[in-house]
Write a structure and sequence with these properties.
Elements: H1 2-28, E1 31-35, E2 40-44, E3 53-58, E4 62-70, E5 73-77, E6 83-87, E7 91-92, H2 97-200
Amino acid sequence: MNNVFYFIIFITINSISLILTSVNAAEKNYEQGYITDQLSTFIHSGPSTNYRILGTVTAGSSIKMTGLQENNYSEIIDDKSRKAWIETKYITKGPVLRISLAKLNKKISSNNSYTSQLDGQINTLTSKVNTLLSEKQKLTDELQSVSKKLSQTSLKIKDQDTNIKKQWFFTGAMVLGIGLILGLILPRLFNRKRNTMQSWS
Protein backbone atom coordinates (compact mmCIF):
# COMPACT_ATOMS: atom_id res chain seq x y z
CA MET A 1 0.00 0.00 0.00
CA ASN A 2 2.81 2.37 0.91
CA ASN A 3 4.60 1.58 -2.35
CA VAL A 4 1.50 2.47 -4.34
CA PHE A 5 1.13 5.72 -2.41
CA TYR A 6 4.75 6.70 -3.05
CA PHE A 7 4.39 5.74 -6.70
CA ILE A 8 1.34 8.00 -7.08
CA ILE A 9 3.21 10.87 -5.41
CA PHE A 10 6.21 10.27 -7.67
CA ILE A 11 4.01 10.27 -10.79
CA THR A 12 2.23 13.43 -9.61
CA ILE A 13 5.48 15.29 -8.95
CA ASN A 14 6.88 14.26 -12.34
CA SER A 15 3.67 15.36 -14.06
CA ILE A 16 3.76 18.76 -12.36
CA SER A 17 7.44 19.11 -13.26
CA LEU A 18 6.70 18.26 -16.90
CA ILE A 19 3.82 20.76 -16.99
CA LEU A 20 6.00 23.52 -15.51
CA THR A 21 8.79 22.69 -17.94
CA SER A 22 6.36 22.83 -20.85
CA VAL A 23 4.97 26.15 -19.65
CA ASN A 24 8.47 27.60 -19.28
CA ALA A 25 9.47 26.29 -22.69
CA ALA A 26 6.35 27.80 -24.21
CA GLU A 27 7.04 31.12 -22.52
CA LYS A 28 10.59 31.09 -23.83
CA ASN A 29 9.24 30.69 -27.35
CA TYR A 30 6.97 33.72 -27.07
CA GLU A 31 7.78 36.39 -29.60
CA GLN A 32 7.88 40.05 -28.63
CA GLY A 33 5.25 42.23 -30.23
CA TYR A 34 3.33 45.51 -29.87
CA ILE A 35 -0.19 46.73 -30.38
CA THR A 36 -0.44 49.12 -33.33
CA ASP A 37 -1.36 52.79 -33.05
CA GLN A 38 -5.06 52.42 -32.38
CA LEU A 39 -6.75 54.12 -29.44
CA SER A 40 -7.78 50.78 -27.94
CA THR A 41 -8.40 47.29 -29.27
CA PHE A 42 -10.71 44.56 -27.96
CA ILE A 43 -9.28 41.21 -26.99
CA HIS A 44 -11.38 38.04 -27.04
CA SER A 45 -11.30 34.66 -25.41
CA GLY A 46 -11.11 33.01 -28.86
CA PRO A 47 -10.13 33.70 -32.49
CA SER A 48 -13.22 35.70 -33.55
CA THR A 49 -15.66 38.34 -32.43
CA ASN A 50 -18.07 35.55 -31.43
CA TYR A 51 -15.95 34.86 -28.37
CA ARG A 52 -16.32 36.71 -25.12
CA ILE A 53 -14.58 40.11 -24.84
CA LEU A 54 -11.95 40.01 -22.12
CA GLY A 55 -11.15 43.70 -22.24
CA THR A 56 -9.04 46.08 -24.25
CA VAL A 57 -5.36 46.69 -24.83
CA THR A 58 -3.90 50.15 -25.16
CA ALA A 59 -2.13 51.29 -28.31
CA GLY A 60 1.61 50.76 -28.11
CA SER A 61 1.32 48.11 -25.37
CA SER A 62 4.03 45.50 -25.23
CA ILE A 63 2.72 41.96 -25.70
CA LYS A 64 3.96 38.40 -26.17
CA MET A 65 2.83 36.37 -29.15
CA THR A 66 2.34 32.65 -28.47
CA GLY A 67 2.55 31.83 -32.18
CA LEU A 68 -1.02 30.51 -32.46
CA GLN A 69 -3.04 32.02 -35.33
CA GLU A 70 -6.54 31.36 -36.63
CA ASN A 71 -9.13 33.29 -38.65
CA ASN A 72 -6.76 36.28 -38.95
CA TYR A 73 -6.52 36.32 -35.13
CA SER A 74 -3.40 35.75 -33.05
CA GLU A 75 -3.13 34.53 -29.50
CA ILE A 76 -1.23 36.93 -27.22
CA ILE A 77 -0.34 37.54 -23.62
CA ASP A 78 -0.87 41.23 -22.84
CA ASP A 79 0.94 43.46 -20.39
CA LYS A 80 -1.55 42.37 -17.67
CA SER A 81 -0.60 38.69 -18.21
CA ARG A 82 -3.99 37.94 -19.82
CA LYS A 83 -3.99 35.28 -22.53
CA ALA A 84 -6.38 36.34 -25.26
CA TRP A 85 -6.96 36.62 -29.00
CA ILE A 86 -6.72 39.77 -31.09
CA GLU A 87 -6.94 40.55 -34.80
CA THR A 88 -3.51 40.01 -36.31
CA LYS A 89 -3.65 43.32 -38.18
CA TYR A 90 -3.39 45.13 -34.86
CA ILE A 91 -0.08 43.46 -34.01
CA THR A 92 3.35 44.66 -35.09
CA LYS A 93 6.76 43.24 -34.28
CA GLY A 94 8.48 46.61 -34.23
CA PRO A 95 7.98 49.37 -31.65
CA VAL A 96 5.03 51.56 -32.59
CA LEU A 97 5.12 55.30 -33.15
CA ARG A 98 4.30 56.16 -29.53
CA ILE A 99 7.19 54.08 -28.18
CA SER A 100 9.49 55.31 -30.93
CA LEU A 101 8.54 58.89 -30.09
CA ALA A 102 9.11 58.23 -26.39
CA LYS A 103 12.57 56.84 -27.14
CA LEU A 104 13.27 59.73 -29.51
CA ASN A 105 12.13 62.26 -26.90
CA LYS A 106 14.36 60.55 -24.34
CA LYS A 107 17.32 60.78 -26.71
CA ILE A 108 16.49 64.43 -27.45
CA SER A 109 16.25 65.14 -23.73
CA SER A 110 19.57 63.39 -23.18
CA ASN A 111 21.13 65.33 -26.06
CA ASN A 112 19.68 68.59 -24.71
CA SER A 113 21.13 67.79 -21.31
CA TYR A 114 24.50 67.05 -22.90
CA THR A 115 24.23 70.24 -24.97
CA SER A 116 23.44 72.23 -21.83
CA GLN A 117 26.45 70.67 -20.16
CA LEU A 118 28.63 71.59 -23.13
CA ASP A 119 27.20 75.12 -23.09
CA GLY A 120 28.10 75.40 -19.41
CA GLN A 121 31.65 74.21 -20.11
CA ILE A 122 31.94 76.60 -23.06
CA ASN A 123 30.72 79.49 -20.89
CA THR A 124 33.26 78.56 -18.21
CA LEU A 125 36.07 78.38 -20.78
CA THR A 126 34.92 81.66 -22.34
CA SER A 127 34.99 83.31 -18.92
CA LYS A 128 38.50 81.96 -18.31
CA VAL A 129 39.65 83.18 -21.73
CA ASN A 130 38.18 86.64 -21.06
CA THR A 131 39.94 86.71 -17.69
CA LEU A 132 43.25 85.74 -19.33
CA LEU A 133 42.76 88.37 -22.03
CA SER A 134 42.04 90.98 -19.35
CA GLU A 135 45.17 89.97 -17.43
CA LYS A 136 47.16 90.03 -20.67
CA GLN A 137 45.91 93.56 -21.43
CA LYS A 138 46.78 94.64 -17.88
CA LEU A 139 50.30 93.20 -18.21
CA THR A 140 50.66 94.84 -21.62
CA ASP A 141 49.68 98.21 -20.16
CA GLU A 142 52.11 97.75 -17.26
CA LEU A 143 54.87 96.79 -19.71
CA GLN A 144 54.20 99.89 -21.79
CA SER A 145 54.26 102.03 -18.65
CA VAL A 146 57.55 100.48 -17.52
CA SER A 147 59.01 100.87 -21.01
CA LYS A 148 57.96 104.53 -21.05
CA LYS A 149 59.53 105.14 -17.63
CA LEU A 150 62.67 103.32 -18.73
CA SER A 151 62.84 105.45 -21.87
CA GLN A 152 62.40 108.61 -19.79
CA THR A 153 65.08 107.45 -17.34
CA SER A 154 67.45 106.68 -20.23
CA LEU A 155 66.87 110.20 -21.61
CA LYS A 156 67.55 111.73 -18.19
CA ILE A 157 70.74 109.70 -17.83
CA LYS A 158 71.79 110.73 -21.32
CA ASP A 159 71.06 114.40 -20.51
CA GLN A 160 72.97 114.11 -17.23
CA ASP A 161 75.89 112.52 -19.03
CA THR A 162 75.81 115.32 -21.59
CA ASN A 163 75.65 117.92 -18.83
CA ILE A 164 78.54 116.27 -17.00
CA LYS A 165 80.60 116.28 -20.18
CA LYS A 166 79.74 119.93 -20.72
CA GLN A 167 80.75 120.74 -17.16
CA TRP A 168 84.00 118.89 -17.60
CA PHE A 169 84.55 120.68 -20.89
CA PHE A 170 83.85 124.11 -19.36
CA THR A 171 85.97 123.26 -16.33
CA GLY A 172 88.83 122.13 -18.58
CA ALA A 173 88.45 125.23 -20.72
CA MET A 174 88.51 127.46 -17.64
CA VAL A 175 91.58 125.68 -16.28
CA LEU A 176 93.23 125.97 -19.67
CA GLY A 177 92.25 129.60 -19.94
CA ILE A 178 93.52 130.36 -16.45
CA GLY A 179 96.70 128.47 -17.25
CA LEU A 180 97.20 130.45 -20.42
CA ILE A 181 96.47 133.68 -18.64
CA LEU A 182 98.87 132.85 -15.84
CA GLY A 183 101.42 131.66 -18.35
CA LEU A 184 101.23 134.94 -20.18
CA ILE A 185 100.80 137.36 -17.27
CA LEU A 186 103.19 135.98 -14.64
CA PRO A 187 106.32 136.13 -16.82
CA ARG A 188 105.54 139.74 -17.67
CA LEU A 189 105.00 140.58 -14.03
CA PHE A 190 108.32 139.03 -13.14
CA ASN A 191 109.99 140.88 -15.98
CA ARG A 192 108.54 144.21 -14.80
CA LYS A 193 109.66 143.58 -11.25
CA ARG A 194 113.10 142.70 -12.49
CA ASN A 195 113.28 145.75 -14.68
CA THR A 196 112.06 147.93 -11.82
CA MET A 197 114.63 146.49 -9.46
CA GLN A 198 117.36 147.01 -12.05
CA SER A 199 116.32 150.60 -12.61
CA TRP A 200 116.52 151.26 -8.86
CA SER A 201 119.84 149.77 -8.62
